[in-house]
Amino acid sequence: MLSQRALEAFREVMRCGTVSGAAEEMRVSQPAISRQIRDLEERLDLRLFTRHGGRITATPEAHEFWTEVERNLVGLKQIERAAEQIKRGQRATMTIAAAPVFALTVLPEAVAQLHQQQPRLTTSFMSMTTLPVVRQVALGQCQIGFGMQTHHKFEIDLISAGAFPYRFIATADHPLADKETIRVEDLAGQDFVGFEDSTQTGRNLDRLFAGMENPPLVRFRSYLSHIVSVMALRGLGIALVDPFTAETHEQMGGISRPFLSAERFEYSIIKAVGARLSSECDALLQTFEKLTDRHRR
User: Fold this and answer.
1) Is domain 4-81 in CATH 1.10.10.10, yes or no?
2) CATH match for 167-262 among 3.30.360.10, 3.30.200.20, 3.30.70.20, 3.40.190.10
3) What pLDDT, on a 0 to 100 scale, did the predictor assign at position 172?
4) Which fold has domain 92-161+269-292?
5) What is the structure's pLDDT at 87?
6) For the chain, N or C: smaller number of CB within 10 Å?
7) What is the pLDDT averaged over residues 57-71?
8) Angstrom distance (rounded) from CA 109 to CA 280
Protein backbone atom coordinates (compact mmCIF):
# COMPACT_ATOMS: atom_id res chain seq x y z
CA MET A 1 0.00 0.00 0.00
CA LEU A 2 1.22 3.51 -0.80
CA SER A 3 2.22 5.65 2.15
CA GLN A 4 0.11 8.76 2.62
CA ARG A 5 3.18 10.51 4.04
CA ALA A 6 5.13 9.71 0.87
CA LEU A 7 2.31 11.04 -1.30
CA GLU A 8 2.23 14.24 0.76
CA ALA A 9 6.00 14.59 0.34
CA PHE A 10 5.65 14.11 -3.42
CA ARG A 11 2.89 16.72 -3.58
CA GLU A 12 4.94 19.29 -1.69
CA VAL A 13 8.00 18.71 -3.90
CA MET A 14 5.82 19.26 -6.96
CA ARG A 15 4.32 22.41 -5.45
CA CYS A 16 7.60 23.90 -4.22
CA GLY A 17 9.87 22.66 -6.99
CA THR A 18 12.61 21.73 -4.51
CA VAL A 19 13.23 19.17 -1.79
CA SER A 20 14.30 21.92 0.59
CA GLY A 21 11.04 23.81 0.04
CA ALA A 22 9.00 20.67 0.63
CA ALA A 23 10.96 19.90 3.79
CA GLU A 24 10.27 23.39 5.10
CA GLU A 25 6.56 23.10 4.35
CA MET A 26 6.29 19.70 6.06
CA ARG A 27 8.69 20.68 8.87
CA VAL A 28 10.96 17.69 8.37
CA SER A 29 14.53 17.24 7.20
CA GLN A 30 15.54 17.21 3.53
CA PRO A 31 16.91 13.63 3.80
CA ALA A 32 13.49 12.53 5.12
CA ILE A 33 11.78 14.00 2.05
CA SER A 34 14.33 12.44 -0.31
CA ARG A 35 13.85 9.06 1.34
CA GLN A 36 10.06 9.31 0.98
CA ILE A 37 10.40 10.15 -2.72
CA ARG A 38 12.82 7.25 -3.36
CA ASP A 39 10.51 4.83 -1.55
CA LEU A 40 7.55 6.06 -3.58
CA GLU A 41 9.44 5.65 -6.88
CA GLU A 42 10.44 2.11 -5.91
CA ARG A 43 6.91 1.24 -4.85
CA LEU A 44 5.46 2.58 -8.10
CA ASP A 45 8.34 1.39 -10.26
CA LEU A 46 8.08 4.82 -11.84
CA ARG A 47 10.68 7.53 -12.20
CA LEU A 48 9.15 10.74 -10.89
CA PHE A 49 12.19 13.02 -10.87
CA THR A 50 15.49 13.37 -12.67
CA ARG A 51 18.40 14.46 -10.50
CA HIS A 52 21.18 16.82 -11.49
CA GLY A 53 23.55 17.35 -8.60
CA GLY A 54 21.47 18.97 -5.89
CA ARG A 55 18.57 19.81 -8.21
CA ILE A 56 15.57 17.73 -9.24
CA THR A 57 13.23 18.02 -12.21
CA ALA A 58 9.78 16.45 -12.40
CA THR A 59 9.28 13.96 -15.23
CA PRO A 60 6.19 14.02 -17.49
CA GLU A 61 4.99 10.94 -15.57
CA ALA A 62 5.25 12.92 -12.32
CA HIS A 63 2.95 15.62 -13.67
CA GLU A 64 0.34 13.02 -14.67
CA PHE A 65 0.65 11.29 -11.30
CA TRP A 66 0.36 14.62 -9.46
CA THR A 67 -3.15 15.17 -10.83
CA GLU A 68 -4.35 11.92 -9.24
CA VAL A 69 -2.47 12.51 -6.00
CA GLU A 70 -3.88 16.01 -5.62
CA ARG A 71 -7.44 14.82 -6.22
CA ASN A 72 -7.19 11.97 -3.71
CA LEU A 73 -5.38 13.92 -1.00
CA VAL A 74 -8.01 16.65 -1.25
CA GLY A 75 -10.58 13.91 -0.69
CA LEU A 76 -8.72 12.68 2.40
CA LYS A 77 -8.58 16.21 3.80
CA GLN A 78 -12.32 16.53 3.31
CA ILE A 79 -12.84 13.27 5.21
CA GLU A 80 -10.67 14.50 8.08
CA ARG A 81 -12.52 17.82 8.13
CA ALA A 82 -15.89 16.06 8.09
CA ALA A 83 -14.87 13.86 11.03
CA GLU A 84 -13.80 16.90 13.03
CA GLN A 85 -17.07 18.67 12.26
CA ILE A 86 -19.10 15.63 13.25
CA LYS A 87 -17.24 15.53 16.54
CA ARG A 88 -18.05 19.19 17.16
CA GLY A 89 -21.64 18.92 15.98
CA GLN A 90 -20.88 21.22 13.04
CA ARG A 91 -21.38 18.85 10.13
CA ALA A 92 -23.55 21.18 8.03
CA THR A 93 -21.13 21.77 5.16
CA MET A 94 -21.56 23.17 1.68
CA THR A 95 -18.94 22.93 -1.07
CA ILE A 96 -19.32 25.20 -4.10
CA ALA A 97 -17.44 25.55 -7.37
CA ALA A 98 -18.28 28.63 -9.41
CA ALA A 99 -17.15 30.52 -12.48
CA PRO A 100 -15.67 33.94 -11.60
CA VAL A 101 -18.69 35.80 -12.98
CA PHE A 102 -20.73 34.29 -10.12
CA ALA A 103 -17.96 33.88 -7.54
CA LEU A 104 -17.09 37.59 -7.64
CA THR A 105 -20.64 38.96 -7.72
CA VAL A 106 -23.92 37.37 -6.64
CA LEU A 107 -22.79 34.17 -4.87
CA PRO A 108 -20.91 35.83 -1.99
CA GLU A 109 -24.11 37.70 -1.11
CA ALA A 110 -26.16 34.49 -1.37
CA VAL A 111 -23.71 32.62 0.85
CA ALA A 112 -23.61 35.49 3.36
CA GLN A 113 -27.40 35.51 3.64
CA LEU A 114 -27.44 31.75 4.14
CA HIS A 115 -24.83 31.98 6.89
CA GLN A 116 -26.96 34.55 8.68
CA GLN A 117 -29.80 32.03 8.70
CA GLN A 118 -27.52 29.09 9.59
CA PRO A 119 -24.60 30.36 11.71
CA ARG A 120 -23.17 26.84 12.20
CA LEU A 121 -22.86 26.26 8.45
CA THR A 122 -19.35 25.89 7.03
CA THR A 123 -18.71 26.59 3.36
CA SER A 124 -15.90 25.76 0.96
CA PHE A 125 -16.04 28.10 -2.04
CA MET A 126 -13.79 27.70 -5.09
CA SER A 127 -13.65 29.90 -8.18
CA MET A 128 -12.59 28.51 -11.55
CA THR A 129 -13.64 28.46 -15.19
CA THR A 130 -16.59 26.32 -16.27
CA LEU A 131 -14.74 23.18 -17.40
CA PRO A 132 -12.93 22.79 -14.03
CA VAL A 133 -16.26 23.49 -12.31
CA VAL A 134 -17.73 20.50 -14.19
CA ARG A 135 -14.75 18.34 -13.22
CA GLN A 136 -14.90 19.29 -9.54
CA VAL A 137 -18.60 18.51 -9.37
CA ALA A 138 -18.39 15.32 -11.46
CA LEU A 139 -15.60 13.97 -9.20
CA GLY A 140 -17.60 14.76 -6.09
CA GLN A 141 -15.15 17.37 -4.85
CA CYS A 142 -17.93 19.99 -4.78
CA GLN A 143 -21.63 19.50 -4.12
CA ILE A 144 -22.87 22.18 -6.47
CA GLY A 145 -21.46 24.12 -9.41
CA PHE A 146 -22.34 27.42 -11.07
CA GLY A 147 -21.00 28.05 -14.56
CA MET A 148 -21.71 28.84 -18.16
CA GLN A 149 -24.08 26.63 -20.14
CA THR A 150 -22.54 23.16 -20.36
CA HIS A 151 -23.24 20.10 -22.51
CA HIS A 152 -21.47 17.49 -20.33
CA LYS A 153 -24.64 15.41 -20.05
CA PHE A 154 -22.98 12.15 -19.02
CA GLU A 155 -20.74 13.61 -16.29
CA ILE A 156 -23.16 15.74 -14.27
CA ASP A 157 -26.84 16.33 -13.60
CA LEU A 158 -28.32 19.68 -14.55
CA ILE A 159 -30.15 21.27 -11.62
CA SER A 160 -31.30 24.33 -13.51
CA ALA A 161 -30.37 26.60 -16.37
CA GLY A 162 -31.28 30.12 -17.31
CA ALA A 163 -30.41 33.21 -19.27
CA PHE A 164 -30.03 36.93 -18.61
CA PRO A 165 -29.97 39.87 -21.03
CA TYR A 166 -26.63 41.56 -21.53
CA ARG A 167 -26.05 45.09 -20.30
CA PHE A 168 -24.03 47.93 -21.76
CA ILE A 169 -21.25 49.41 -19.58
CA ALA A 170 -18.98 52.42 -20.03
CA THR A 171 -17.38 55.29 -18.14
CA ALA A 172 -19.74 57.78 -16.51
CA ASP A 173 -18.77 60.51 -18.99
CA HIS A 174 -19.16 58.45 -22.16
CA PRO A 175 -21.47 60.07 -24.78
CA LEU A 176 -23.75 57.01 -24.80
CA ALA A 177 -24.38 57.46 -21.07
CA ASP A 178 -27.14 59.93 -21.98
CA LYS A 179 -29.23 57.15 -23.55
CA GLU A 180 -31.71 55.21 -21.42
CA THR A 181 -31.28 52.06 -23.52
CA ILE A 182 -28.60 50.95 -25.97
CA ARG A 183 -29.25 49.35 -29.36
CA VAL A 184 -26.87 47.42 -31.60
CA GLU A 185 -26.57 50.34 -34.02
CA ASP A 186 -25.38 52.58 -31.16
CA LEU A 187 -22.19 50.51 -30.97
CA ALA A 188 -21.16 51.18 -34.57
CA GLY A 189 -17.51 52.24 -34.84
CA GLN A 190 -17.08 52.50 -31.06
CA ASP A 191 -13.91 51.37 -29.30
CA PHE A 192 -14.88 48.11 -27.63
CA VAL A 193 -13.60 45.90 -24.81
CA GLY A 194 -14.54 42.35 -25.73
CA PHE A 195 -14.23 38.74 -24.63
CA GLU A 196 -11.98 36.01 -25.96
CA ASP A 197 -13.52 33.99 -28.79
CA SER A 198 -13.33 30.84 -26.63
CA THR A 199 -15.91 32.24 -24.19
CA GLN A 200 -19.67 32.02 -24.52
CA THR A 201 -20.05 35.80 -24.48
CA GLY A 202 -17.21 36.22 -26.98
CA ARG A 203 -18.99 33.93 -29.44
CA ASN A 204 -22.33 35.62 -28.84
CA LEU A 205 -20.93 39.08 -29.52
CA ASP A 206 -18.95 37.95 -32.57
CA ARG A 207 -22.19 36.61 -34.01
CA LEU A 208 -23.99 39.84 -33.16
CA PHE A 209 -21.35 42.08 -34.73
CA ALA A 210 -20.96 39.93 -37.85
CA GLY A 211 -24.16 41.41 -39.29
CA MET A 212 -23.10 45.04 -38.79
CA GLU A 213 -21.76 47.19 -41.62
CA ASN A 214 -19.67 49.20 -39.17
CA PRO A 215 -19.02 46.96 -36.14
CA PRO A 216 -17.32 48.12 -32.95
CA LEU A 217 -13.50 48.23 -32.94
CA VAL A 218 -12.28 45.65 -30.45
CA ARG A 219 -9.27 47.19 -28.67
CA PHE A 220 -8.91 44.69 -25.86
CA ARG A 221 -10.08 41.15 -25.08
CA SER A 222 -10.19 39.16 -21.88
CA TYR A 223 -11.52 35.85 -20.64
CA LEU A 224 -12.94 37.39 -17.45
CA SER A 225 -15.84 39.81 -17.21
CA HIS A 226 -14.28 41.53 -14.19
CA ILE A 227 -11.24 42.49 -16.27
CA VAL A 228 -13.48 43.65 -19.13
CA SER A 229 -15.27 45.93 -16.66
CA VAL A 230 -12.03 47.34 -15.25
CA MET A 231 -10.67 48.06 -18.71
CA ALA A 232 -13.91 49.79 -19.70
CA LEU A 233 -13.60 51.92 -16.56
CA ARG A 234 -10.07 52.82 -17.66
CA GLY A 235 -11.50 54.23 -20.88
CA LEU A 236 -10.33 51.52 -23.30
CA GLY A 237 -13.83 51.25 -24.72
CA ILE A 238 -17.42 50.32 -24.07
CA ALA A 239 -18.46 46.73 -23.30
CA LEU A 240 -21.38 44.32 -23.03
CA VAL A 241 -21.43 42.11 -19.95
CA ASP A 242 -23.70 40.01 -17.76
CA PRO A 243 -25.98 41.91 -15.34
CA PHE A 244 -23.95 40.91 -12.25
CA THR A 245 -20.72 42.38 -13.59
CA ALA A 246 -22.69 45.44 -14.76
CA GLU A 247 -23.94 45.99 -11.22
CA THR A 248 -20.39 45.83 -9.85
CA HIS A 249 -19.29 48.17 -12.65
CA GLU A 250 -21.78 50.78 -11.45
CA GLN A 251 -20.57 50.41 -7.87
CA MET A 252 -17.05 51.17 -9.10
CA GLY A 253 -18.18 54.45 -10.70
CA GLY A 254 -19.17 53.40 -14.21
CA ILE A 255 -22.58 53.37 -15.86
CA SER A 256 -24.78 50.50 -16.99
CA ARG A 257 -27.71 50.56 -19.41
CA PRO A 258 -30.14 47.91 -20.77
CA PHE A 259 -28.97 46.49 -24.09
CA LEU A 260 -31.69 45.58 -26.60
CA SER A 261 -30.70 42.33 -28.26
CA ALA A 262 -31.85 38.73 -28.53
CA GLU A 263 -28.43 37.51 -27.36
CA ARG A 264 -28.43 36.17 -23.81
CA PHE A 265 -25.92 35.27 -21.13
CA GLU A 266 -26.71 31.60 -20.41
CA TYR A 267 -25.73 29.70 -17.29
CA SER A 268 -26.06 26.24 -15.69
CA ILE A 269 -26.22 25.00 -12.12
CA ILE A 270 -25.02 21.41 -11.77
CA LYS A 271 -24.46 18.52 -9.35
CA ALA A 272 -22.82 15.10 -9.56
CA VAL A 273 -24.74 12.38 -11.39
CA GLY A 274 -27.30 10.83 -9.04
CA ALA A 275 -26.26 12.99 -6.09
CA ARG A 276 -28.88 14.30 -3.69
CA LEU A 277 -28.54 17.97 -2.81
CA SER A 278 -28.23 18.84 0.85
CA SER A 279 -30.80 21.14 2.46
CA GLU A 280 -28.07 23.81 2.59
CA CYS A 281 -27.56 23.63 -1.18
CA ASP A 282 -31.32 23.79 -1.72
CA ALA A 283 -31.42 26.92 0.43
CA LEU A 284 -28.53 28.41 -1.53
CA LEU A 285 -30.42 27.82 -4.79
CA GLN A 286 -33.49 29.57 -3.44
CA THR A 287 -31.41 32.53 -2.30
CA PHE A 288 -29.64 32.68 -5.66
CA GLU A 289 -32.99 32.73 -7.48
CA LYS A 290 -34.30 35.56 -5.31
CA LEU A 291 -31.16 37.67 -5.80
CA THR A 292 -31.07 37.17 -9.56
CA ASP A 293 -34.78 37.34 -10.39
CA ARG A 294 -34.75 41.10 -11.04
CA HIS A 295 -32.05 40.66 -13.70
CA ARG A 296 -34.20 38.34 -15.82
CA ARG A 297 -36.56 41.08 -16.93
Assistant:
1) yes
2) 3.40.190.10
3) 97
4) D-Maltodextrin-Binding Protein; domain 2 (3.40.190)
5) 66
6) N
7) 85
8) 15
Strand partners, 94: 123
Domain range annotation of the chain: 4-81, 92-161+269-292, 167-262
- Asked if the domains 92-161+269-292 and 167-262 are classified in one and the same CATH topology, the answer is yes
Banded model confidence at residue 64, pLDDT cuts 50, 70, 90: confident
Contacts of residues 227-236 at CB distance under 8 Å and 24 or more positions apart, as own/partner, are 228/193, 228/194, 228/195, 229/169, 229/254, 231/193, 232/169, 232/170, 232/171, 232/193, 233/171, 235/171, 236/191, 236/193
